């Protein structure tokens, strides 16, 4: 069977790594994004806005995928608006496909806010008992992940394709200009600390500093998505996906500091907003970029400190169970320090950090 993929959000941290993996596996890959200028030459660009049905229909008029991979989202002021906008994007894609009956499988990437709640109510109230398991019921709050799932389930029933939902923890991987990119944000922070003599302070909560946690390498996520989309065992299920190891930030933080040739500062015992630490440092970053001949002088294009603050500031334990996909045959694993080191090395090789 000839596999033809449509990756929605193909320039993002998830979509870009997934598109690379599919191409490597011999798939024909169409990559949809609003800006496609930096898309790999091996991916067929589809320039469109998923919130604009007319442009979407025009852009997809000749695209007949066997598999759709939805890897993007849009942020709005309230969760009610998030639900409306993000479910509309998914619905618009299905409505714009010229031959939806040709679809075999659709994969939707969401995340742990399925268990923790949306940003408006993030990790508030009584936290769910860890580890997070796919069988846990939805929270009794508005959540755009739930709205997206409902659109996916309805479309699958109407057109007869299989589906999977993938719920990663914090995704670590290469992508420039991404809204949620902890790995690159920490690389920029460590670089500023080294170049400007700032203390490399862990910005998160005592719970995150001391407790067990996990993350998801973008390549691990791509491997699970590919497995689920092509394995009978992966049909019509939701899967958690993390690297497969656990760690404590009080162990990993000095390890990351050592990679940059700096010493981790003593933990102050409380969260320190990275958004505040990086505020007003645009000129400092531009000067560093100028001294080292870096490709990006705009700090905001590389760092997303608001998201890193949200992830590392959680007052609850975050440990994810992925036994379901393991029992069904998915055996992927990534060592978390390598997830960060591989990203840092690529950022250095591509001249985004010195």
TrEMBL record:
Cite the CDD domains for this sequence: 5beta-POR_like_SDR_a (cd08948)
Matching entries from InterPro entries are given as: NAD(P)-bd_dom_sf, PRISE-like_Rossmann-fold
Task: Supply the SUPFAM superfamilies for this chain.
Answer: NAD(P)-binding Rossmann-fold domains
Q: Name one Pfam family in it.
A: PRISE
PRISE-like Rossmann-fold domain span: 61-354
UniProt xrefs under PANTHER family: 3-OXO-DELTA(4,5)-STEROID 5-BETA-REDUCTASE
What is the protein's name according to its record?
Answer: PRISE-like Rossmann-fold domain-containing protein
- Its source organism is Novacetimonas maltaceti
